[in-house]
Amino acid sequence: MKGELSQETVVGAPASAVWSAYRGLELGRLVDELLGHVVGKTEVLEGDGGVGTPGGYLKEIFRIMDDEKRVKETETIEGGYKDLGFDVCRFRLEIIEKDAESSVIRSTIKYEIDDSKAELVSLLTTKPLQTMAEEIGKYVSEKKSAA
């Protein structure tokens, strides 16, 4: 069984500024700073934030890092939803320009799971990704306003 969940969050900051926050390892630093009390510590074990870099509070690898399309995709290789029984779990983050002063953060979870475990799909949620998008968007917008 394959599927996906998606959530779009509008933020009051330009897509280029939001992408700078989401791209590479900056996201982990910001998650620690803004949401560390919620998600715990993010630690990079190896890599520089480009494709192939594992990281996060679960073990994942960066599969896509497209600066032109502003798309980042990671795949869980250990822990998290993988430990619950999912065969594949990918997190895709897209920063879409809405206008000069706002953008949309589309957060998607793509998954594959054996049909016999279909009930586990109800455990998937985009809520943490939405919270992260809201907090990062607010941070980037405030940073832009202060400049």
UniProtKB/TrEMBL annotation:
GO terms for molecular function: abscisic acid binding; protein phosphatase inhibitor activity; signaling receptor activity. The keyword Phosphoprotein does not apply. GO terms for biological process: abscisic acid-activated signaling pathway; alkaloid metabolic process; defense response. The keyword Thylakoid does not apply. SUPFAM superfamilies: Bet v1-like. InterPro entries: Bet_v_I/MLP, Plant_def-hormone_signal, START-like_dom_sf. Residues 2-142 form the Bet v I/Major latex protein domain. GO terms for cellular component: cytoplasm; nucleus. Keywords: Alkaloid metabolism. PANTHER family: BET V I_MAJOR LATEX PROTEIN DOMAIN-CONTAINING PROTEIN, OS08G0374000 PROTEIN-RELATED. Belongs to the BetVI family. This is Bet v I/Major latex protein domain-containing protein.
